[in-house]
Design goal:
This protein has 289 residues and is α/β, with parallel strands linked by helices. It has seven helices and nine strands. The strands form two sheets. A five-stranded parallel sheet has the order 2-1-3-4-5, with helices on both faces. The chain is elongated, with a radius of gyration of 24 Å.
């Protein structure tokens, strides 16, 4: 069965953070093979590479990301890039419009209206007759969600099976204040707070408690993960887990209250710490002398 694909057209000097966030979000929602964004270096004057031609031909939908400097970008001689027939961004959009593919302009970085027709090269003016969406920083999650629903409802995309499914929120605890968190960390000195982007919810972040555990072997690392199952299920507060060969990383956050650290995360970390000490003692007793 044919899988729809999206091609992201953008200019590297324009709203690159928004472009990367969009790419990250769409890959998480639909899978890495369904989203193309060229991330290799492009030098002015380079011949349009075959990989772009193939990706654009394969694409079901083309997203044109337009930020504050998209229209005014110039080359080293001060010439506007969109006016150059060899400009790669122009070539991408021209070919997409000629092909009849769905082309959706995405306005980012504070833009709310498309460039006027007189500001666009004649071959790109058709872009104004195509659908466009505004993606605001302050409502990024909702706006990207609207784009994803559009791709599903109108263009045959299917959400990735790898999408995280959360249960109904059940916990109503306050997030720890900075002072309370600092005091709690003194009781679990090997744990640290870390902040990272929330998959599918860029640019929102999560604050987690993290601790790495190193074992004698990969078998021991997996054995420790198995030893966590029953106690964690009884606690009813589940961690995010990562395994890299002999190392296990355990993360706790209370997503019910906005992915912040609560007292429940502190208690869960203490439980895992105790389980680790017990597991390590048992593993050492079984090790060859």
């Amino acid at each position: 069965m044919h899988q729809p694909n999206v091609f992201i057209s953008y200019r590297r000097t324009d709203a690159i953070d928004a472009v990367r966030g969009l790419y990250f979000q769409l890959r998480l929602r639909f899978g890495s093979r369904q989203v193309f964004m060229d991330v290799s270096g492009i030098e002015p004057g380079d011949v349009w590479p075959d990989r772009l031609q193939r990706a654009l031909t394969k694409a079901s939908v083309v997203l044109v990301v337009i930020g504050p400097t998209w229209l005014r970008a110039t080359d080293q001689y001060g010439r506007r890039r969109l006016d150059e027939t060899g400009d790669w961004v122009r070539q991408e959009i021209e070919q997409a419009l000629r092909s009849g593919k769905p082309v959706i302009a995405l306005l980012v970085g504070g833009l709310t209206v498309l460039p006027p027709a007189e500001a666009l090269p004649e071959p790109l003016r058709e872009l104004r007759n195509r659908q466009h969406l505004v993606i605001h920083d302050q409502s990024w999650e909702d706006n990207v969600g609207s784009l994803a629903r559009l791709l599903v409802d109108s263009h045959g995309f299917h959400p990735s099976d790898a999408a995280v499914i959360y249960p109904t929120p059940e916990i109503n605890l306050p997030a720890l204040t900075d002072g309370d968190l600092d005091a709690a960390l003194l009781t679990i000195p090997r744990w640290e707070p870390v902040e990272s982007a929330i998959p599918r919810d860029y640019p929102r972040t999560r604050l987690e408690l993290r601790r790495g555990f190193r074992f004698r072997s990969f078998k021991d690392a997996i054995g420790f993960l198995q030893a966590l199952v029953d106690p964690i299920n009884k606690l009813k507060h589940h961690p995010r887990l990562e395994n890299q060969w002999r190392t296990v990383f355990v993360y706790f956050t209370t997503w019910d209250v906005g992915n912040r650290i609560t007292q429940l995360d502190i208690e869960a970390a203490r439980l895992v710490e105790a389980l680790y000490e017990k597991f390590r003692a048992q593993a050492e007793s079984k090790a060859p002398q």
